[in-house]
Amino acid sequence: PTKGDAPCLSTCINGRPDLSGPLCHILLARSGKVHLISGNIANHAGKGAQQVLDMVRNDEPVLQNARQRGFADSVGGNQFFYGIEVENAGVASDPYPPAQVEALARICAIICNAHGWSAHRVIHHRQWTSRKIDMSWRGDLASSVAQYMDALVIHLGEHEDSTPAEWEADHDGSGMHDCGDSDDDPAQAAH
């Protein structure tokens, strides 16, 4: 659909008759609003080119589309990639709003920074597989992501708290610790 902020939200969560959901990790609405769909593997990337997976793993830029390069879809990608579905009908009459493109670059920058990756790890469906042509936006996403990554590094180090860190005495550091005040009453722990 060419109208609405996130008309494919339900489909991204629940899937389609031919493909079970979730269909992405993040749905990026036209307004730039982020919908977190899945924190686990999503049916997003599907099969793609081993050559592209190798380039991404080696932190090499993926400069052309898989179809242009004649790459075969030979390996599943869902377990290797985060899937960000960018709301768009894929037609010329549905341009990507600047707020949406900016949010996409920021999201990708945050994910790359969190993993210690460069912007070369960000690819489009069309670069991964010969089956897909999206995203139809043709701007230089990797450069935008790299700029936001640089800004994040500068911004995050700009106003560091100089007070010493304090740690929970009952946490051994082996995994996630609950964030609530339920330590005294296990029955009140969040699930």
**What's the helical proportion of residues?**
25-40%
Low-confidence stretches: 167-191
Strand segment count: 7
Largest sheet descriptor: 3 strands, mixed
Strand content: 5-15%
Q: What is the radius of gyration?
A: 19 Å
List SSEs in N-to-C order. Answer: HEEEEEHHEEHHH
Instruction: List the strand order in the largest sheet.
Output: 4-3-7
Number of helices: 6
Distance between the termini: 36 Å
Structural class: alpha+beta
Oligomer: single chain
Mean pLDDT: 84
Question: How would you sum up the global shape?
Answer: globular
Structure explained in plain terms:
The chain is α+β, with helices and mostly antiparallel strands and 191 residues long. Strands 4-3-7 form a three-stranded mixed sheet, covered by helices on one side. A two-stranded antiparallel sheet has the order 1-2. The two termini are 36 Å apart. The C terminus is likely disordered. It is built from six helices and seven strands; from the N terminus they run αβββββααββααα. Helix content is 30%, strand content 9%. A hairpin with a 5-residue loop joins β3 and β4.
